[in-house]
Design brief:
This is VOC family protein. InterPro entries: Glyas_Bleomycin-R_OHBP_Dase, Glyoxy/Ble-like_N, VOC_core. By secondary structure, the chain is of the alpha/beta class. The chain has 2 domains: about 60 residues, 2,3-Dihydroxybiphenyl 1,2-Dioxygenase, domain 1 (Roll), CATH 3.10.180.10; about 70 residues, 2,3-Dihydroxybiphenyl 1,2-Dioxygenase, domain 1. The chain contains 3 helices and 8 strands; from the N terminus they run βαβββαβαβββ. The strands form 2 sheets. Strands 1-4-3-2 form a 4-stranded mixed β-sheet. It has a 4-stranded mixed β-sheet with strand order 5-8-7-6, with helices on one face. A hairpin with a 7-residue loop joins strand 2 and strand 3. It is globular, with a radius of gyration of 16 Å.
Length: about 140
């Protein structure tokens, strides 16, 4: 079985959140998108993020919904094909109203940077050249 992953994130405003992620180049599957939830396609390898308005998100849990602008419950990390792609996505996120929680980190074989989306969720972007990684001891 080829597993799929659906990361579910609570959001405050559907239109605003979709516009933000569309400006980064992501698309949405219209078959699974409406005013309560939007299925954002992360990759063709069956990886998706479900953006769910908070009232709908609350129907899936009895626990309180975390305010991602105040506390971090999850860090979402996406791989990128190059350092340039990492930097380009961060630049697009900042232009669309996101923020950068940390400066870029360069470890030689691995380069990363990230952004915080409009609802406070942290997205880490990483490019890694595994062939240049230090050998395991």
């Amino acid at each position: 079985m080829n597993r799929q992953i659906f990361v579910n994130l609570p959001i405050k405003n559907m239109e605003r959140s979709q516009a933000f992620f569309k400006s980064l180049g992501f698309s949405f599957n219209p078959q699974f998108t409406n005013e309560q939830g939007a299925c954002m396609v992360v990759s063709e390898n069956h990886n998706y993020v479900m953006l769910l308005v908070e009232s709908f998100f609350a129907t899936f849990t009895k626990k309180p919904i975390s305010d991602a602008t105040q506390a971090t419950e999850v860090l979402i990390c996406l791989s990128c094909e190059s350092r340039a792609e990492v930097d380009a996505l961060v630049k697009k996120a900042l232009a669309a109203g996101g923020t950068s929680p940390n400066p870029p980190q360069d470890h030689g074989f691995m380069y990363g940077h990230g952004f915080t989306d409009l609802d406070g969720h942290i997205w880490e972007l990483v490019y890694m050249d595994a062939s240049a990684a230090p050998p395991q001891a």
